[in-house]
Specification:
153 residues
Length: 153
């Protein structure tokens, strides 16, 4: 593998192997997700080979919706392998609950946009556009009130 001379991977080689950008690796270091690697005499970072696995773990955790703090905790649980697995399962259930709440919110937004889009099909002038009215901060009605009114008409 390119960049694996004397003592580990250079940052570019790690980024390529893990499928992330160099700035992402630096960000992970700043956030404490990736330990600061040793440096060569000329200042180049040299990551151990297991850093690829760690970065992939972080990427997969992010893809599942875990926050950086949650991933940091999961990495710690991975290092202290004696912890019971039910703790990881509990964290996954909490993340699932958050995803389900977000899905409910997204469904509410979708329904609102569908209702507003249907109301706009009347070819009104923009001064009477229900979408613009719903977004207008100066209006006292909330989006829910606007939707109830549209559904009643």
């Amino acid at each position: 593998m390119a960049g694996t001379r004397a003592g580990g991977l250079r940052i570019g080689a790690l980024a390529e192997a893990a499928g992330v950008g160099v700035e992402t690796l630096r960000f992970y270091e700043r956030e404490g997700l990736l330990p600061d690697p040793p440096r060569t005499g000329s200042g180049y970072r040299r990551y151990p080979p297991d850093a690829v696995r760690r970065v992939r773990f972080i990427r997969k955790g992010r893809a599942l919706g875990f926050t950086l703090a949650e991933i940091r905790d999961l990495l710690e649980l991975r290092v202290t392998a004696a912890e019971p697995c039910h703790e990881v399962a509990a964290r996954a259930r909490r993340r699932l609950a958050a995803v389900e709440a977000r899905l409910r919110e997204l469904n509410r937004v979708r329904d609102a946009l569908e209702a507003l889009s249907r109301a706009c099909e009347a070819n009104r002038e923009t001064g009477e556009c229900p979408i613009l009215d719903a977004l207008d901060d100066a209006l006292d009605d909330t989006l829910d009130d606007t939707l109830e009114h549209l559904e009643a008409t």
